[in-house]
Design brief:
The structure is a single chain. With 74 residues, the chain is an all-alpha fold. The chain is built from 1 helix and no strands. The protein starts with 8 loop residues before the first helix and ends with a helix.
């Protein structure tokens, strides 16, 4: 294999290392994106559960207020 004399082996090695680093970075970015997509798929379910819990908490607060009023009138 013959190269132009201006191209050194260090330059070729640097290009290979940069390419490898870029591929590794792209692989990690794809893995993070997959994780975000999985988390986003769970969001509607979590939002629904949170809404139900908020409603239950509001009902419990109303019940507690009603009990407190009854206790105060006695």
């Amino acid at each position: 294999m013959k190269f132009d004399p201006r191209v050194t082996y260090a330059l070729i090695l640097a290009l290979l290392l940069e390419t490898a680093g870029g591929l590794i970075w792209a692989g990690r970015a794809a893995a993070r994106l997959d994780e975000v997509e999985r988390a986003a798929a769970l969001q509607p379910e979590m939002a629904e559960r949170l809404a139900r819990m908020e409603e239950q908490l509001a009902e419990a607060q109303h019940s507690l207020a009603r009990i407190e009023r009854r206790l105060e009138t006695r």
